[in-house]
Amino acid sequence: MCTERVAKTLTAMILIGVLSLPASAGTWQHEGGSLALDEQPQRVVALNWAATEALLLLGVTPVGVADRDGYDVWVNEPQLPEDVPNIGTRVAPSLEAIAELKPDLIVTSAEMAPAAKLLERIAPTYVISVYKEGSKPFEKATDMLTTLGEMLGREDHAESILADIDNTLETQRLRLEAAGLTDRPVALVNFMDARHVRIYAPNGLYQSALNALGLENAWPRQGNFWGFSVVGLESIAPYEDSRIVVISPTAPGLADTLASSPFWTYLPAVNRHQVYEIDAIWPFGGVFPVKRLATMLADSLLAGGSDNVR
Amino acid sequence: MYASTSGMPASRPVMPARLPIAAILLWLGALLARAVPWLDQLDAGAVLSAFWAFNPDNYSSVLAHFSWAPRVSIAILIGCGLGLAGAVTQQVLGNPLASPTTLGVEAGGQFGVTVATLFAPGLLAFSPDLVAIAGGLIAIGMVIALTWRLGFSPVTVILAGLVITFFLGALNMAFLLLKGEWLGNLFIWGAGSLVQNNWAPFMELWPRVLVISVLILLLMRPLQVLQLGQSSASSLGARVGLIRALALFLVVLMTATVVSRVGVVAFVGLAAPVLARLLGARTFASRILWSTLMGGGLLLLADTLAHWASTWGDGSLVPTGTTTALIGGPIILLALQGFRNTHHMPGQESNLAGFQPSRRAPLLVSGIVSGLIALTVVVSMSWSPGLDGWNWTPVTQWDDAWVWRGPRLLAAMLAGVALGLAGTLIQRMTGNPMGSPEMLGISGGAALAMVLIVLTGADVGRAGQLGAATLGAAGALGLLILLARKHRFAGNQLLLGGLALYVFMDAGLRLVMASGGTVASQLLNWMYGSTWLVSETEAFGLLGFILLICGLLALIVRPLTILPLGDTSASSLGLPVTKARLLLLLLAAVLTASATVVIGPLSFVGLIAPHLARVLGQQTVGRQLIVAGLVGGLLLTLADYLSRIVVFPNQLPAGLLAALVGGVYFLWGLSRHGKA
After folding, report:
1. Helix (H, G, I), strand (E, B) or coil at A64
2. Interatomic CA distance for residues A140 and A155, integer angstroms
3. Which residue spans traverse the membrane (chain B) (predicted)?
């Protein structure tokens, strides 16, 4: 019994020693200046879903997340544990709620710049914007993942995640190539209503998935810095040889409305039965949606298209 | 604005030739500009025949027939409908700033679509118009119910309409901010897009527009009588209230019907009648005719511009609401130059007719309101929700709580006081009950600066935000002084200038909204009063500033009591009218700017606080100022507290809550007085 207690104490001491290792402490340069951490953060708060995703990928459960219910609906994967508290909306989080959680690291983007000083009062703040003017989302997201990996002592996790994504992308590319499905460009769209779509542009996150799969984006123009453009449905008509990939969700009744419109039924892609629909993916996330999109895109193209949305 | 016609020589009874010429130019220009891009794909005959036929083997022809032609047709149809509705609204309400939007139609329509999208998406699939029309009718129903006992006097109708607009608008914004991801369609609907890919909407719409137009035309004769003013009209046996209610109902039905399909195409209902009048349409009949035609031409032109802008840029949608605003702005500015310097318009009572609440002792009222402010402060500091539930913070621990609750509370209160004061100043100066700091364009200028920053994609910190807003407000003030100098800083010209600025800001806002993403949510969050960003330094800075201005105000109450008597009387009483006006304008502007910079431009408090002061029985200037300031302070203090707690840990902009709280109280006051 005595030895058992000694052993326990020893383990505890070793654990404490491991946890307090200064390995992850250090200084990082980021968009909001420089960030000095004396020790590895234990309580991290994420103010957007890209940051939430990165933390979860690294195996760190954040102590607070902005708009956590929305995360479950729109991002879904990687899964967020039930008991993580919500700290407010993504545009105006509750500073008091964040302070109550006593975090030792806050991860946010330059969107929160007006609140930067107030956030700094609560905890060291790591500012990284995957989405901002002129940024390359996938590279930025990779950077966020590896930097958070360093800060949280999870470099291995970060590396294996990135390697896994590379592998997946390569596997899916080979699948598509083997089936000879990389010949036609694809237009990735979200229906906003029966008349308008969000079309994903070459400067967005999804382009990384298309590139890796060897697919061409039908839409040639730059979008906004989130990587999409809102366009009237007729804007996709000129790209006659492209396939249309519709990302869920679509409003109820959309299929009927489209089917009754000759404009849609005469669309070359519709005539060729090359309309595909895939499940919802969060287009403004980190590295993970790229893997998800690639897999679902390959599955859907291989399964074959139809002449309407579901 | 009616006075603009009375000064013309009586020897020119015929319609000026420029009206038909302008209309023809507008229509031809817009149609040609619309057709030209098609000529390199189809021959002229095929472009024309796209309105009734298509060649299934040629996709260009399919596109022209099912996308281009219905869009042109629906633009003309909706423009005409809105032009007609606008002309009738201005006739009924006798106010150049009034339009169907004033009556809450669009806010109501958007509310209907929002609620349906969130809670009954099946309903939208069943009929896209039903919910929008129902929403619009609910809005006008509320307005009519509230003003029923007051005989629909124009001023009360406008006020009730504005309050309903803000009220429903606040609810819409709250939904957009909390459920933005679910409401992607609403961002487009709110920005207005005429994109079509089917003839069905047009074919469904035109019979409805036709029927409503005929009904409106049947009302023309009775409406003409209204122009004589309420008492003369009544003595001629016209049932003024009934006619007004009927006309307003039809106008709203028309507006709701046309916007239900395409969303909010702003300012057509305002710009078309203003343009018709500006070009010399004088009789009610000619105003109706030309406003209708101008409306169709204007919307077609605006939609053509929107379409061009979409194709020239990165291909992303430029909503038609943006270009209608860009066209509407200059027209309103032209009107500013064209209208005579009028304080009051015939048919517009300067007071709320039948709405004279009994006077109350100012000390008692001020005391009660101050007490309520103190109570709100105590409750706000002490009783707040946390992540584990509600808890009470005793006074001894206010030190800790202060950091997150104090500065925003203080800033909100001060901004409320500033807006209450500014609103009273502006309403007293212009004699227009629609006058508000928002209308002065100061907040519009600040907002415009922020919208531009967002459009360029630069991200700025708090200091940049404050700087940009200050710069925008200062620029707007400079422009306003420049514009209003000619009119000796008087009357509705001030408000029209401000409105034009607001319109430009609105154009940018719609562009941002249609492009979607969290950028729009962020901007809306700031615009509706983001007290959560206020730091201690800012709060104390505002405190010092407001105290200084209040001191200055106390010195110049006298001019305010004299100015509304008219220029001649004021001058004869020894008041340098122009200088006095400029000084008051500057004070109002500075007050508005300081509040705007700290808590954002759209808070509605400046409009409602002066009216609340009147409801509370304060009629003279000094008393109205004090009570309006206090009421404004109370409103925003309460709003800030509520914005923090109602959906904790989410928070809403304080301005939204102020609109909800103030709106409810005002409507209650209005209905109570109606029954008395």
Report:
1. strand
2. 16
3. 68-89, 101-124, 130-148, 155-178, 205-224, 236-256, 262-281, 288-309, 321-340, 361-383, 409-427, 439-458, 464-483, 495-519, 539-561, 582-609, 621-642, 654-671
Contact B387 A195 (CB under 8 A): no
Q: Is B644 on the interface with A (CB under 8 A)?
A: yes
Contacts of A101 in chain B (CB under 8 A): 387
**Which residues numbered 423-452 in B keep a CB inside 8 Å of some CB on A?**
none
Distance CA B176, CA B626 (A): 35
| pLDDT, tens only, B3-42 | 333 334 444 445 678 889 999 999 999 999 989 888 888 8
* Lowest-pLDDT choice from A246-255, A273-282, B218-227: B218-227
The residue from B338, B359, B391 where one domain ends is B338
Predicted local confidence at residue B5, as pLDDT: 39
Coil/strand/helix, residue B444: helix
Instruction: Identify the domain containing residue B593 by its residue range.
Output: 416-675
pLDDT, tens only, B583-610: 888 888 888 888 887 787 776 788 888 8
Phi, psi of A37 (to 5 degrees): -115, 125
pLDDT for B419 equals 92
Say if B387 falls within a structural domain: no
Is the pLDDT at B511 greater than 70, yes or no?
yes
Architecture of domain A160-303: 3-Layer(aba) Sandwich (3.40)
**What is the CATH classification number for the domain harbouring B288?**
1.10.3470.10
Spatial separation of the C-alpha atoms in residues B643 and B530, rounded to whole Å: 10
Test the A interface: residue of B311, B644, B650 with most A CBs within 10 Å: B650
As given in the structure block, the two tokens for residue A180 are: 């000879």
Looking at beta carbons, which residues of chain B come within 8 Å of A75?
none
Amino acid at B501: L
Neighbour count for residue A262 (Cβ, 10 Å): 15
Give me the number of domains chain B comprises. Answer: 2
Question: Sign of the CA dihedral B349, B353, B358, B363?
Answer: negative
Asked if B285 and B297 count as a contact pair (C-beta separation under 8 A), the reply is no
Do the beta carbons of residue A231 and residue B315 sit within 8 Å? Answer: yes
Options 3.40.140.10, 1.10.730.10, 3.30.460.10, 3.40.50.1980; which CATH number does A24-153 get? 3.40.50.1980
Residues of chain A found within 8 Å of residue B521, distances taken between Cβ atoms: 89-91
- Taking CA atoms, A37 is separated from A42, A125, B279, in Å, by 11, 10, 69
Residue B354: phi and psi, rounded to 5, are 65, 15
Lowest-pLDDT range, A266-280, B328-342, B367-381, B586-600?
B328-342
Token pair for B275: 């343009």
The pairing of strands A196-200 and A228-232 is: antiparallel
